[in-house]
Write a structure and sequence with these properties.
This protein is an alpha/beta fold. It folds into two domains: about 170 residues, Aspartate Aminotransferase, domain 1, CATH 3.90.1150; about 270 residues, Aspartate Aminotransferase, domain 2 (3-Layer(aba) Sandwich). It contains 14 helices and 16 strands. The strands form four sheets. It has a seven-stranded mixed sheet with strand order 4-12-11-10-7-5-6, sandwiched between helices. Strands 1-2-3-15 form a four-stranded mixed sheet. Strand 13 and strand 14 form a beta hairpin. It is globular, with a radius of gyration of 22 Å. The termini are far apart. Its cofactor is pyridoxal 5'-phosphate. Keywords: Aminotransferase, Biotin biosynthesis, Cytoplasm, Pyridoxal phosphate, S-adenosyl-L-methionine, Transferase. Pfam families: Aminotran_3. It is found in: Cytoplasm.
Length: about 450
């Protein structure tokens, strides 16, 4: 639709209509009495364009989903073509080329041994599938006593009940505790929490020892260990050494529990490699994918698993071993077509090579913050960077949560044309891969000015 045919609604009118009928996620709606919502009418590359014409650099890739920019023409063209062919079909007993092509490509690019693809709707659904599949695998193998999971402290895997059950976000667990399973929590190998003088590898070794102790006590009742490889994103962009994943794979093999890799946020090039697990040279038993899978165009997720897991369910109907999970929009052709177009961009363009150049430039620009009196840590893994704001640099004492210092950074960003959405008092960057070095300069400079205002 051309601009001549499309008259964007007035910003104030759209906001008023929104507030009369909508309830937004991860939001205290009362905040919008003093913090107006931003009505967006289109996207252009790394930028969002508001109804009033103001532009905002999307420094968080719209909740980490957008890889190649808003309105990416190749993905858009694939969707337009698919719209004229098939919009949706039941995925039980039926199939279609976009789903088959996507599954073939995921098997080709994911770590060795991941040979079966189960499609779902979103990241939380992928986690639900992996948890149920792991439990059901052990049940089919005659190990019904395996009913529990091990997760890391500070972990976040989604907000459906199963995904929340293996997450360690205090607010959620406090609120919904009566509804949740109770996992065993292993200490995170987060480098920020290391002892003085410890290297990231030292921390990994120490935390693997604690994981071993946990498995020695609980492996007999444990289905799987679930982790976010390299970066615990929603838990505060906590980062750790790849050697932890290598050691964890060995422990899971030794104690006969599954390894679930939640690469929903870190997959598809965010950490510098196509998948974070590659940096440890390991293959999980289940890899959960979403967010960037469709380049940010459509809701879709996938669980990629092994033929060993698949065979545990493959039997005559009367055996009662079939996997029990179905959503109406499983295998949606439009979403699958967007995903195959996204995968083609990875094949055709030097994405990872360019990301390394962009990541190096981002590292250079954020380096001065190391010496800031209210910054306790500056950390980066590939195209993910984070700045930890604290009240006292020496003691790392945090600002009181009620101060909402991160919100001050967010407000400053909006005022100056950047979408920065801190996690509490952690300012982070996870921009689309089409961002330029000049745009990175603008992004970091805007954040720095926001930080100064926030800690004043």
């Amino acid at each position: 639709m051309t601009d001549a045919l499309f008259a964007p609604p007035a910003a104030d009118t759209l906001v008023a209509r929104d507030r009369s009928v909508l309830w937004h996620p991860c939001t205290q709606m009362h905040d919008h009495e003093t913090l107006p919502m931003v009505p967006v009418v289109r996207g252009e590359g790394a930028w969002l364009v508001g109804a009033d014409g103001k532009r905002y650099l999307d420094a968080v890739s719209s909740w980490w989903t957008n890889l190649f920019g808003h309105a990416e023409p190749r993905i858009g063209a694939a969707l337009k073509d698919q719209l004229d062919r098939l919009e949706h079909v039941i995925f039980a007993g039926f199939t279609h080329e976009p789903a088959v092509e996507l599954a073939e490509e995921l098997v080709r690019i994911t770590p060795k041994g991941l040979d079966r693809v189960f499609l779902a709707d979103n990241g939380s659904a992928a986690i639900e599938v992996a948890l149920k599949m792991s439990f059901h695998y052990w049940l089919n193998q005659g190990h019904g006593e395996k009913t529990r999971f091990i997760a890391l402290t500070g972990s976040y895997h989604g907000e459906t009940l199963g995904a929340l059950s293996v997450s360690d976000v205090a607010l959620y667990r406090k609120t919904y505790a009566p509804l949740l399973l109770t996992p065993e929590l292993a200490p995170s190998p987060d480098t920020y929490e290391g002892e003085p003088g410890e290297t990231p590898k030292d921390i990994a070794i120490r935390r693997l020892g604690e994981m071993r102790s946990l498995l020695e006590r609980h492996a007999h009742e444990t289905c799987a260990v679930i982790v976010e490889p390299l970066v615990q994103c929603a838990g505060g962009m906590r980062m750790y050494d790849a050697s932890y994943l290598t050691g964890l794979r060995a422990l899971c093999d030794e104690f006969q529990v599954h390894f679930i890799a939640d690469e929903i946020a870190v997959g598809f090039g965010r950490t510098g490699t196509l998948f974070a697990c590659e940096q440890a040279g390991i293959s999980p038993d289940f890899m959960c994918l979403s967010k960037g899978l469709t380049g940010g165009f459509m809701a879709l997720s996938a669980v990629v698993t092994t033929n060993d897991v698949y065979q545990a369910f493959y039997a005559e109907y009367a055996a009662g071993k079939a996997f029990l999970h179905s959503h109406s929009y499983t295998g949606n052709p439009l979403a699958c077509r967007a995903a195959t177009a996204t995968m083609k961009i990875f094949r055709d363009d030097p994405v990872l090579e360019r990301n390394r150049v962009l990541a190096a430039h981002m590292a250079k620009r954020i380096a001065p913050l190391v010496d800031h009196p209210h910054v306790a840590d500056v950390r980066q893994t590939g195209m993910i960077a984070a700045i930890e704001l604290v009240a006292d640099k020496k003691t790392r004492a945090p600002f009181p949560a009620a101060d909402r210092r991160g919100l001050r950074v967010y407000r400053h960003g909006l005022e100056h044309g950047a979408l920065l959405r801190p996690l509490g008092n952690i300012v982070y960057f996870m921009p689309p891969y089409v961002i330029t070095e000049r745009e990175i300069d603008f992004m970091v400079e805007t954040a720095m000015a926001g930080i100064e205002k926030a800690v004043r």
